[in-house]
Amino acid sequence: MPTALTLPTRLLCILLALLPCLSQANPPSPERQRILTHLLRQECGSCHGLKLDGGLGPALTHSALTGRTIEQLAHVILQGRPGTAMPGWQAFIQPAEALWLADLLLNPPSGQP
Ligand code: HEC
Questions:
Q1: Which residue from 35, 39, 83, 84 has the fewest beta carbons nearer than 10 Å?
Q2: Residue 16 predicted with pLDDT over 60
Q3: Confidence of residue 15 (pLDDT cuts 50, 70, 90)
Q4: Cβ(70) to ligand 1 under 6 A?
């Protein structure tokens, strides 16, 4: 006769099932934010310039991106721009993380152009 799951086990299952949804909706963890910021400087910077002021790829500074929406930028980050050097990053960056990066580019910490 199969034994019924105990209540704590059931709650644990529900929690585990919800985890992916939670990680989508929430901003990246502080640890992940550090990784993403590093990625932005190293990987994105290799094309967009060390200070993201342009190189092979266009400048990603606040002033250069005026008029763009967070969603538009996140879309380019995830999908890339077909036919250009801009690669898609969806294998490395989650949708919520792309939104966070786009927000960082559009609303950089003060002191940056
Ligand atoms: C191999 C070079 C390369 C790398 C690496 C790269 N990009 Fe790009 N990116 C480009 C190019 C080239 C374009 C311009 C595409 C076009 O002509 O529309 C671009 C365009 C963009 C745009 C759109 C800008 C606009 O004005 O609409 C965003 C946003 C962007 N990149 C973000 C990133 C981010 C974030 C990363 C790192 C995760 C990254 N890129 C890494 C080459 C690169």
A1: 83
A2: no
A3: very low
A4: no
pTM for this model (two decimals): 0.79
Determine whether the shortest distance from the Cβ of 99 to ligand 1 is under 6 A: no
pLDDT in tens, 17-38: 554 444 456 789 999 999 999 9
Q: How many domains does the chain have?
A: 1
Torsion of CA 38, 40, 44, 46, to 10 degrees: -40
In a domain? residue 14: no
Give the distance (Å) from ligand 1 centre to CA of residue 33: 19
Q: Whose CA is nearest to atom 6 of ligand 1?
A: 44
User: In this model, does residue 65 exceed pLDDT 50?
Assistant: yes
The two three-digit tokens of residue 72, written as one number: 């538009």
Domain assignment present for residue 71? The answer is yes
Q: Is 71's C-beta closer than 6 angstroms to any atom of ligand 1?
A: no
What mean pLDDT do residues 84-110 have?
95
> How far does residue 73's CA lie from ligand 1's centre (Å)?
9
- Looking up residue 102, the CATH number of its domain turns out to be 1.10.760.10
Domain membership of residue 18 (yes or no) is no
Cα angle: 28, vertex 108, 19; to 5 degrees = 10
